[in-house]
């Protein structure tokens, strides 16, 4: 074990051998990303409870973690796991990782037109009758590219969903007429099979204001209308139960409120991926859990622990964490506590992270803290726990991540280590 920030005492040991030594957070070098086992159990249970109450199925987006051990927590039956219907992934290569870890139902929330990826899907489906792999198409040209990439020798048609988008969004047919044309092309294809309708409402809104929610609801209404129009046109295979899917991690409450009632003849699948890890930034502010769904929010399960390297001027501390260790695309880290010194957390009141370099974090202490002289209590060598934003761009920086029993403990015990496959 020679992964980032693991101690030299782990070198030459297997994961099991090292964990048997009962290591603590303080045994690791800094910077260090940890995951909180208790927070993940809490988050998965909250989401599974909501899905059951809302009448939707879960296919959490595995690209968030690309960690097969964490995928298993989502796929395992309740109460041990979330009992998810399947797993969402973004590319054919990610789907290959999923199949290598025995994921049997995969929704590729993307267009797949790469011939290498298409042939792999066709071969996988032919070899494993119990496996389902669904992908998307948002144009007749996509359907034609898929047919060309597959060729005529396909033993089992590929399940393809019509992707509906919106003006200013990402991929996706831009109106109902275009979506129906895609459905007709899929239904007529000898190598594809029409499986449903999907899309991503998160591309159309970025806050929880009334205008954003109205845009999301209007989009979901149109998604349901496309599904109904396809059914009325007789394009779905006879006897098949279509899938209607939406729901990132910001607006899944709207999916549960809108789509089941409008699509009673379909399986409504929510693809939220960030809930398992959650964060102390973007998703903490926008997630409906605890805001519109009950009063118990998700908990952030990820933290980076960074050490003070320098006090080059009053009120400024440089920590050994940078862009190669923490996310910065949806907000900079937030200093939360000084490790092992909970009574001294007042030192961090009013502090803010102002910049990240490759290997340095700039932490500005609050003016009141500097004026009182308390800033001196954050000394070179102290370790600061940082809250982060956007798990998708944190975990991809770490190949092996320690899992602690409780990140709020004075010196958390490490109980597992999760491998990522990015």
From TrEMBL:
Record Gene3D superfamilies: Alanine racemase, D-serine dehydratase-like domain
EC code: 4.1.2.42
InterPro entries for the chain: D-amino_acid_metab_enzyme, D-ser_dehydrat-like_dom, D-ser_dehydrat-like_sf, PLP-binding_barrel
Location of the D-serine dehydratase-like domain: 301-405
SMART domains in the cross-refs: D-ser_dehydrat (SM01119)
The keyword DNA-binding appears for this protein: no
SUPFAM superfamilies: PLP-binding barrel
Molecular function as annotated in GO: D-threonine aldolase activity
Keyword field contains Transmembrane: no
PANTHER family in the cross-refs: D-SERINE DEAMINASE (PTHR28004:SF8), ZGC:162816-RELATED (PTHR28004)
Protein's recorded name: D-threonine aldolase
Species this chain originates from: Microbacterium azadirachtae
């Amino acid at each position: 074990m020679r992964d980032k920030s693991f101690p030299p005492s782990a070198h030459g040991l297997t994961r099991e051998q090292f964990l048997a030594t009962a290591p603590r957070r303080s045994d690791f070098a800094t910077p260090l990303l940890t995951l909180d086992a208790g927070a993940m159990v809490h988050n998965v249970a909250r989401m599974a409870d909501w899905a059951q109450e809302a009448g939707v199925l879960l296919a959490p987006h595995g690209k968030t973690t690309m960690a097969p051990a964490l995928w298993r927590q989502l796929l395992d039956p309740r109460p041990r796991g979330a009992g998810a219907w399947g797993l969402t992934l973004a590319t054919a290569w990610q789907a290959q990782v999923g199949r290598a870890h025995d994921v049997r139902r995969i929704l590729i929330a993307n267009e797949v037109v790469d011939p290498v990826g298409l042939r792999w899907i066709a071969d996988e489906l032919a070899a494993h009758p119990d496996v389902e792999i669904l992908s998307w198409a948002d144009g007749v040209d996509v359907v034609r590219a898929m047919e060309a990439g597959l060729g005529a020798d396909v033993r089992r048609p590929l399940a393809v969903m019509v992707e509906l988008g919106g003006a200013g969004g990402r991929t996706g047919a831009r109106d109902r007429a275009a979506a129906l044309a895609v459905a007709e092309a899929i239904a007529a294809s000898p190598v594809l099979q029409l499986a449903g309708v999907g899309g991503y409402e998160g591309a159309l809104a970025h806050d929880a204001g009334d205008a954003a929610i109205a845009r999301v609801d209007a989009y979901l209404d149109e998604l349901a209308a496309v599904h109904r129009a396809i059914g009325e046109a007789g394009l779905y295979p006879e006897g098949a139960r279509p899938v209607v899917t939406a729901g990132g991690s910001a607006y899944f409450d709207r999916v549960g409120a809108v789509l089941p009632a409008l699509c009673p003849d379909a399986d409504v699948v929510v693809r939220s991926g960030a809930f398992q890890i959650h964060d102390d930034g973007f998703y903490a502010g926008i997630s409906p859990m605890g805001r519109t769904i009950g009063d118990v929010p998700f908990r952030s399960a990820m933290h980076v622990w960074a050490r003070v390297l320098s006090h080059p001027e009053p009120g400024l501390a440089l920590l050994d964490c940078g862009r190669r260790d923490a996310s910065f695309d949806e907000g900079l880290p937030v200093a939360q506590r000084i490790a092992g010194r909970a009574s001294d957390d007042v030192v961090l009141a009013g502090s803010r992270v102002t910049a990240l370099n490759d290997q340095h974090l700039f932490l500005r202490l609050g003016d009141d803290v500097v004026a009182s002289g308390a800033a001196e209590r954050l000394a070179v060598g102290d370790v600061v726990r940082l809250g982060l934003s956007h798990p998708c761009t944190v975990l991809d920086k770490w190949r092996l991540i320690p899992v602690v029993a409780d990140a709020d403990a004075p010196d958390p015990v490490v109980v597992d280590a999760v491998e990522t496959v990015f």
